[in-house]
Write a structure and sequence with these properties.
The structure is a homodimer of 341-residue chains.
Chain A: H1 4-11, H2 15-22, H3 30-43, H4 49-56, E1 61-67, H5 77-88, E2 94-100, H6 104-116, E3 121-125, H7 132-140, E4 144-147, E5 156-161, H8 163-176, E6 182-187, H9 191-206, E7 216-219, H10 223-234, E8 241-244, H11 247-259, E9 269-274, E10 287-290, H12 293-308, E11 318-320, E12 323-325
Parallel strand pairs in A: 1-2, 1-3, 3-4, 4-5, 5-11, 6-7, 6-8, 8-9, 9-10
Antiparallel strand pairs in A: 10-12
Helix pairs in contact in A: 1-2, 1-3, 5-12, 6-7, 8-9, 10-11
Chain A binds a DNA duplex (30 and 30 nucleotides) through residues 3-5, 13-17, 19-20, 23, 27-29, 32, 47-48, 50-57.
Chain lengths: 341, 341
DNA sequence: AAATGGTACTACAACGTTATAGGAGTGGCA
DNA sequence: TGCCACTCCTATAACGTTGTAGTACCATTT
């Protein structure tokens, strides 16, 4: 692989001159500049990133940290990746990928790698606040942005969806369709769950409907958890609609309703949260609150880069908006199938 | 950040000695060794990867190349990533991520980055054989393994599922349930599609059933394409079962069948291909041929690493087995819901 | 006593860049 | 003629490692 020395020799100038040409110094006349560029092209010269970072003392590398096999698969991983990639295109930064397994040993190895590679920043997703990986990020001292993990330090901040508003959108939709007894399948987890519950209560109170704990059940974000929660609600209350804090739990609830012989959406309206792929494939297609993984990734990366480039004092939290996607699970007001995505 | 020099000073030895300790030379007595390690720990020393690769002339970096927003989302991306990560854990290699957008300009930028970073190998997924990214990989001269893209050169090879056998498994299952008129929704694409068709024909001929072109329709791997293909088949033939070359097309076919008032699975059995997440969420849950993204990623990375470490002469192609996942879409022979994944 | 061999280190030259400082040559001007 | 400024270029010292070739010292062996 060609080096600066080879290019210099070929162009008949010194190494310094070649370096100056590539780095845009303005003390080189056009004629020399062209000779150097031509030589570089002919030799297929590409500056050695290692040599460059050695002397410039920056790796130009950001790390993307995602959970491994054992962890929960983050439904927006791909979207977040695309958002991050979009945000760093055109900056000096490249991306490295860390798949963090849960055990202490391989976590230590990962952290060592981050430090050896002198990563300038991290973007992590899919870890709970108290997960060892989240803690390791804090301890590492590396600036970071977390997606869906609320953790702050002088060099760490987060991005997440506006869960309260998203949940309120969902419930307002059901209210607008005339529903008054709206059940809620709550998810067990961190702050995010609390916010979705807040949104549910907010929308109800806006409509002057008192909060009824009989209509609320908690589940564990799984499909079968949703199934069981729905069962418990139906055993003591008679809602006309259900809002589930995740699409997966909504699917479980749908299964439960069908098993009890109810027709969807005629006998029960249902709304989910997330808009995972499957939401548009189930029958009836699920009305749900869409989260924008790409925007979260983009926002995370932009904030991190702004911090690393010194354009902001410290990284700051962001909320990304959600969008209610209306499909058929609340009734046939939506577009006919052939038109639907 | 501490350097070898700092550690040397603290331990009261020379830089060379410290380097020898860390690199496992055996001419250092235990006592000195300990002094050096202690100093390193106290200073939180991490060897500088850039300096190391500069002198050793290897980056220790593999690149993972995935399609961006514009490209088709590869359903197994996450699984492949996990497989790759598993395979390279414990090797000297780290991973960088390239999200390749389609336009020529950003593709050139990506290739430049690969060369500047001196990536030792690439793993790419989700690009057709004639996609510019696939061509760029070939031209780059960087050793590579492609997932689901059949392309070979002295330093490039591929991994994919055993599509023929997978398709045959699906059709044999339908045959074993007594079906004789089995429709096939063919996908339009590269070699992979041809192989699935081969598997369909193979299973039929094993059973002594003649191939009937009336039962086959081609679609474009989308849901709506599957819907239309199903429609065309039903307009001229009366199958009792359908096999679709992808789950997405199977969903379209299911929608079509329902729109025509057929009951599933009573009036029509259906099998898909891929086992995407949604397959277990639709109703009836889809029986399908599971592909193992993690195994493909692992195989790709292992082959690439073996080549780079000189353990094999050149990278070789691999076929990864598939598994028929039996759910309810071919009848209720399967486990009851509460037991299902 | 001199040669041999082993142990425990160290010196030094790379690796491919960048940045700083400086030098040669030319032209203008007092 | 001497001085200065300007243009175009180059020398050199880092950056943090690794690997090779040594050296100093001591204990054996001949």
């Amino acid at each position: 692989m060609a080096t600066l020395r080879d290019v210099a020799r070929k162009a008949g100038v010194s190494i310094s001159t070649v370096s100056h040409v590539f780095n845009g110094y303005d003390d080189i006349p056009a004629e020399t500049r062209k000779r150097v560029w031509d030589a570089a092209r002919e030799l297929d010269y590409h500056p050695n990133a290692s040599a460059r970072s050695l002397v410039s003392r920056r790796s130009n590398l950001l790390g993307l940290v995602v959970p491994g096999r054992a962890g929960m698969r983050h439904p927006f991983l791909y979207a977040v990746i695309c958002g991050v990639a979009e945000a760093i295109a055109g900056t000096r930064f490249g991306l490295t990928l860390s798949v963090a397994e849960d055990d202490q040993r391989s976590l230590r190895e990962q952290v060592n790698r981050w430090k050896e590679q002198r990563l300038e920043g991290l973007i992590a997703m899919g870890f709970a606040e108290d997960h060892p990986v989240a803690q390791a990020i804090l301890e590492s001292g590396i600036p970071a942005m977390l997606v869906d993990t609320i953790l702050e330090s002088p060099r760490v901040s987060w991005v997440k969806s506006n869960d309260t508003e998203g949940a309120a959108q969902a419930v307002r939709h059901l209210l607008s369709l005339g529903h008054r007894r709206i059940a809620y399948i709550h998810g067990l987890g961190g702050q995010i769950c609390q916010e979705r519950l807040d949104g549910y209560r907010l929308a109800l109170s806006e409509a002057g409907i008192p909060f009824d704990p009989q209509l609320v059940e908690v589940a564990d974000f799984t499909k079968s958890g949703g199934y069981r929660a729905m069962n418990r609600i139906l055993s003591r209350a008679n809602p006309t609609a259900v809002f589930a804090a995740s699409d997966l739990m909504a699917f479980g609830a749908m299964e439960c309703l069908r098993d009890r012989g109810l027709r969807l959406p005629e006998d029960m309206a249902i709304v989910g949260f997330d808009d995972i792929d499957a939401a548009s494939h189930v029958t009836p297609a699920l009305t749900t609150v869409r989260q924008f993984g790409d925007r979260m990734g983009k926002e995370a990366a932009e904030t991190l880069v702004a911090f690393l480039e010194g354009r902001i004092e410290k990284p700051h939290p962001s909320l990304v908006g959600t969008e209610l996607v209306i499909r058929r699970s609340c009734g046939y007001s939506a577009k006919p199938y052939s038109m639907m995505a």
